[in-house]
Amino acid sequence: MAKIKVTKVKSAINRTLRQKRTLEALGLKRIGQVVEHEATPNILGMVAKVEHLVSVEETK
């Protein structure tokens, strides 16, 4: 299965609680932090909800 790298690029200040919790669930706390996840439908759905706060890059 493919992997993706998710990087937090914007602050969660003035965002909804749901978006803040989604970032936490992805494992992102600080700007510039990078986490790797499997590209499952659950993870891709969470990334889609906060796509304006993160950048995504596909890895192998």
Secondary structural class: alpha+beta
Which spans have pLDDT < 50 for at least 5 consecutive residues?
Answer: none
Which percent range describes the beta-strand content? 25-35%
What is the helical fraction, as a range of percent? 25-40%
Terminus-to-terminus distance: 9 Å
Q: How many H/I helical runs?
A: 2
Label the overall shape.
globular
Rounded radius of gyration (Å): 11 Å
- Main beta sheet strand tally, sense and closure: 3 strands, antiparallel
For the largest beta sheet, what order do the strands appear in spatially? 2-1-3
Count of β-strands:
3
What's the rounded overall pLDDT mean? 97
- Topology pattern, helix = H, strand = E: EHEHE
General description of the model:
This protein has 60 residues and is an alpha+beta fold. The protein is 32% helix and 28% strand. The chain is built from two helices and three strands. The protein has helices at 17-26, 41-49, and strands spanning 3-8, 34-38, 54-59. It has a three-stranded antiparallel β-sheet with strand order 2-1-3, with no helix packed on it. The mean pLDDT is 97.
List keywords for this structure.
alpha+beta; 60 residues; three-stranded antiparallel beta sheet; single chain
Describe the protein's topology.
Layout: E1 3-8, H1 17-26, E2 34-38, H2 41-49, E3 54-59
Antiparallel strand pairs: 1-2, 1-3
Helix pairs in contact: 1-2
Q: What's the gist of this structure?
A:
This protein has 60 residues and is an alpha+beta fold. Helices cover 32% and strands 28% of the residues.
